[in-house]
Specification:
The structure is a single chain. By secondary structure, the protein is of the alpha+beta class. The protein has 12 helices and 14 strands. The strands form 3 sheets. A 7-stranded antiparallel sheet has the order 5-6-7-14-9-10-11, with no helix packed on it. The chain has a 5-stranded mixed sheet with strand order 3-4-8-13-12. The longest helix is centred in the middle third of the chain and has 22 residues, at 141-162. 41% of the residues are buried.
């Protein structure tokens, strides 16, 4: 995908330069790129964040600093243009065109849209964070420090403006409460003493909607990852697999084979106000969550280009109906994570296999593979890889090719491995 996204970033820059040359703006980007005299100008902050964030992701996924150097000045101009729209008294970015676009909570309104300072300010802070890191990466230390300091100030402004100290929830007019809590938590704007309460209120709001989402494309992107990060994977999975409105499963019941533009569209009932597209990626943000949370495939923290990775499924309960087989293609080679339950008990076996996990690591990559032990103690389980014990009696058993180390975690044993294919089995004592 590097070539496609690299070309699209050039389209972003070209659109920006075109608008600069015609004196229509100074650094702004339109809603639609390539630009064809369509869409708002400046574009909505939640739309134009694509320029910095995809540039940053190209660096993250490919370790390619050239993309950052090539677009640094263009993204800086975009950020400077956005900062000019900030309210000097409140510190908020009030400019907004679409808010949490096509939110389930406001389905039926024109365009399923409303403006939201919370959403716009969220993306301003996100761009400041990205620019601080990219500035440091290419040697612009002063810029990096300035953007970092401003991001901290804007986080305080975000919390002050949107946090209701009585109800202990973040609010912004018609904005979905699910979206508001998810964005605040994702941003790190919630003071540490209030985090558990805000997470609890997010869970409460979801339960009030019978475990359904009510988010648009902004809130939907962050809802499942935030729930997972704060220990609510089971709820996230329930939300993701609902088969009634609103949810992806509803589309499946309508014989959808693609992603649609509106939660409320169906084969027989068109979506309100012309939201008719039957092939629209905007609600596709649950896809990465399947790979990152269920299969567990993630780049390691502070690692780029898949030099190091972590395979850590977030499942909490072992059932014979839940399993996964996922592969992510990278420039280093495919990364695979597959797991499932297994019960093959015989009277002759002193231990019983209960869980299997296979992982494929490409050449040139180091990985942590988290093998789950669920309710069984790491002191009592035995873990085999390709038929040879690599963990027993609460200790790592060295000697298996490619497995460098193992250590006990909470409900898991974490193995450090090099490139190769690994087939783990978790065994529990028969008695």
């Amino acid at each position: 995908m590097a070539a496609l996204y690299t070309k699209w970033m050039l389209d972003m820059r070209d659109s920006q330069l075109h608008l600069n040359a015609t004196k229509m703006s100074n650094g702004a980007i339109p809603d639609c790129v390539p630009y064809y005299n369509h869409g708002g100008l400046p574009g909505d902050p939640a739309w134009t964040i694509a320029y910095p964030i995809i540039t940053y992701w190209i660096y993250q996924y490919y370790s390619d600093t050239r993309i950052v150097q090539q677009h640094y000045e263009g993204i800086k101009a975009h950020l400077d243009n956005t900062r000019m729209l900030v309210n000097n008294k409140t510190g908020l970015l009030t400019y907004s065109r679409y808010g949490d676009w096509c939110a389930a909570a406001v389905a039926g309104q024109v365009g399923c849209s409303y403006t939201s300072s919370l959403v716009s300010t969220f993306y301003l802070i996100l761009e400041l964070d990205i620019m601080s890191e990219m500035a440091s990466l290419v040697g612009h230390t002063t810029d990096s420090e300035r953007y970092s300091a401003e991001a901290s100030e804007r986080r305080l402004d975000f919390h002050t403006a949107f946090y209701n100290t009585t109800t202990m929830v973040y609010e912004d007019g018609k904005l979905s409460l699910e979206t508001a809590q998810a964005l605040a938590l994702q941003l790190g704007a919630v003071p540490q003493p209030d985090v558990a309460t805000v997470v609890g209120n997010l869970v409460k709001v979801i339960h009030e909607r019978k475990d359904h989402l009510d988010t648009g494309i902004i809130g939907t992107k962050y809802l499942l990852p935030v729930l997972t990060r704060y220990g609510e994977f089971d709820l996230a999975l329930t939300v993701a697999t609902q088969t009634t409105l609103p949810g992806w499963g509803w589309w499946v019941t309508q014989d959808a084979t693609t992603l649609w533009e509106s939660w409320f569209a169906s084969e027989f009932n068109p979506a309100p106000h012309g939201m008719q597209s039957r092939n629209h990626i905007m609600f596709g943000s649950q896809g990465p969550w399947y790979y990152q949370a269920i299969a567990g495939i993630n780049r390691a923290v502070n690692s780029t280009g898949w030099e190091r990775l972590t395979i850590c499924p977030r499942i909490t309960k072992l059932t014979d109906t839940l399993g996964v087989d996922a592969t992510v293609g990278t420039h280093r080679g495919p990364i695979r994570s597959a797991w499932g339950a297994m019960i093959k008990e015989t009277e002759a076996m002193p231990v019983v296999p209960v869980f299997w996990h296979s992982a494929s690591i490409p050449v040139g990559t180091l990985a942590e593979v988290h093998v789950l032990t669920f309710e069984w103690s790491e002191q009592t389980v035995t873990i085999q890889e390709s038929g040879r014990s690599v963990w027993s009696n609460g200790k790592f058993q060295p000697g298996q090719a490619g497995i460098l180390d193992g250590k006990a975690g909470k409900g898991e044993v974490v193995f450090d491995v090099g490139s190769g294919v690994y087939d783990f089995q978790v065994m529990i004592p028969r008695f």
